[in-house]
């Protein structure tokens, strides 16, 4: 018997006592809804949003123990869920959506590309994009942090992932990605959906957006093949990637689908992390000054990936921003067999929602959870913390492959912006939408003034 599958003597997780309509509303508020669901139903709670024949049984998990039982053993126990299936239907097979079996060789081929060491080869573009931002605002003024951060993330990702400058069409591409990802997430969360073959206007728009992104990826791949001197390290790394066990490489279609998914998975997430971090720093001038001083100590030159180990306090700020505003508020899995989750039986076929937002605001783990305090991530505090208490990049074998890359990019951007500009946030709240990942419900107004 595999550990965790002897569920015979266990009872199902308790049914959430909230009324049906309220639950339906809370489930769609993917971030804050978690707090009320946990408050009423506890750390592992069963939710019935529709009859079983319409929507699978649904369990939400919030405690570190329950989350570990779901994500920490996920290969044998759980599979991709309806959200991943919708993305797969729209954007093809990629690392993000492949079921566990075909995913393994793809992961083996791609993992070496994204090691802490290797991301330095394609991850330094954020500094240049952030410099363009600081130069544009070198005399100060009123900015919309949401718009600026999305733009600079898109420019940087375009360069890093696709190897192209997206300067002029950054906004159009960001719009394409928004259309594609909100369409898929919206469908996934509906108890009743139009059949996939029905070409609704929303579906046609999403498909066109995906096609135009795939075309950019395909053009770049061709250009790299035609000109070996072309600078696109990630595209080249994918061209050369092979599964170490089978020595099999990736097809052109695989490469383009993965490039697309890196853009989709990397853009909104990184932009939100950066926007939130700058906004929260805009309310904590003393913390901001410390970040500025740390970056200034490295000299008056463009910051590089090799500088990140010296930006320790900036990294703490970034982690605390991801705790308070995790761009992935939750992740979903489908149980493929009956499993034990924190002492309860979760039946095969159950959709399991892992509540990262609620975990990050659990007062039993994070005293005074709503307070911004980068010291929570001091080296000694990090060392003392359980691995399952903090999961902005999820956990287990299907956690984020872009984690090192995202950390590198965002730390460099934060340091670059704050070294040159003092940011004062105008609004006391950070409004968000959670169409799929969490994004700022812009504008996020701030006043910037040059530091020197
Ligand atoms: C702050 C930024 C980011 C956050 C918070 C984040 C978070 C996450 C989370 C929570 C997952 C698990 C999703 C799930 O299980 O459904 C994930 C998966 C993934 N992320 Fe990220 N991500 C970030 C940036 C990036 C970047 C920059 C890239 C690529 C360049 C990326 C590529 C991916 C891919 C491909 C997966 C699927 C991995 C697999 O199934 O093997 N992410 N990310």
From TrEMBL:
Molecular function terms, GO-annotated: heme binding; iron ion binding; monooxygenase activity; oxidoreductase activity, acting on paired donors, with incorporation or reduction of molecular oxygen
Keyword annotations from UniProtKB, A to Z: Heme, Iron, Metal-binding, Monooxygenase, Oxidoreductase
Keyword Metal-binding belongs to the record: yes
Cell inner membrane recorded as keyword: no
InterPro entries in the cross-refs: Cyt_P450 (IPR001128), Cyt_P450_E_grp-I (IPR002401), Cyt_P450_sf (IPR036396), Cytochrome_P450_Monoox (IPR050196)
Signal peptide: none
Similarity remark: Belongs to the cytochrome P450 family.
Protein name, entry field: Cytochrome P450
């Amino acid at each position: 018997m595999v550990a965790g599958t002897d569920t015979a003597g266990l009872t199902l997780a308790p049914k959430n006592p909230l009324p049906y309509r309220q639950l339906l509303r809370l489930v769609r508020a993917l971030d804050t809804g978690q707090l009320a669901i946990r408050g009423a139903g506890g750390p592992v709670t069963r939710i019935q949003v529709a009859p079983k024949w319409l929507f699978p049984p649904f369990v939400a998990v919030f405690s570190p123990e329950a989350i570990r039982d779901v994500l920490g053993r996920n290969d044998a126990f759980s599979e991709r869920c309806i959200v991943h299936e919708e993305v797969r239907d729209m954007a093809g097979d990629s690392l993000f959506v492949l079921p566990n079996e075909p995913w393994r060789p793809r992961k083996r081929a791609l993992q070496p590309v994204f090691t802490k060491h290797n991301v330095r080869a394609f991850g330094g573009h954020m500094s240049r994009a952030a410099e363009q931002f600081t130069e544009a605002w070198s005399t100060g003024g009123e900015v919309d942090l949401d718009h600026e951060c999305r733009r600079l993330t898109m420019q940087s990702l375009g360069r890093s992932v696709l190897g192209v400058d997206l300067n002029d069409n950054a906004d159009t591409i960001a719009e394409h990605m928004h259309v594609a990802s909100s369409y898929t997430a919206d469908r996934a969360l509906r108890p009743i959906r139009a059949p996939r073959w029905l070409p609704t206007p929303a579906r046609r728009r999403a498909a066109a957006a995906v096609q135009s992104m795939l075309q950019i990826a395909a053009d770049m791949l061709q250009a790299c093949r035609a000109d070996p001197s072309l600078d696109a390290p990630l595209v080249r790394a994918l061209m050369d990637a092979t599964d170490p066990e089978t020595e099999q490489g990736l097809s052109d279609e695989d490469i383009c689908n993965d490039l697309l998914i890196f853009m989709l998975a990397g853009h909104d997430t990184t932009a939100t992390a950066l926007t939130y971090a700058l906004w929260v720093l805009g309310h904590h001038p003393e913390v901001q000054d410390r970040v500025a001083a740390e970056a200034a100590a490295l000299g008056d030159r463009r910051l590089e990936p090799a500088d990140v180990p010296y930006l320790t306090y900036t990294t703490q700020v970034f982690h605390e921003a991801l705790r308070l505003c995790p761009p992935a508020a939750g992740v979903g899995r489908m149980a493929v067999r009956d499993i034990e989750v924190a002492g309860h039986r979760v039946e095969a076929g159950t959709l399991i929602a892992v509540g990262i937002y609620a975990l990050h605001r659990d007062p039993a783990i994070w005293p005074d959870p709503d307070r911004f305090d980068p010291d929570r991530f001091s080296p000694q505090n990090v060392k003392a913390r359980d691995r399952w208490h903090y999961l902005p990049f999820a956990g287990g074998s299907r956690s984020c492959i872009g984690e090192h890359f995202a950390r590198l990019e965002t730390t460099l951007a934060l340091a670059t912006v704050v070294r040159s500009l003092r940011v004062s946030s105008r609004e006391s709240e950070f409004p968000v939408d959670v169409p799929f990942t969490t994004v700022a419900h812009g504008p996020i107004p701030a006043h910037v003034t040059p530091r020197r």
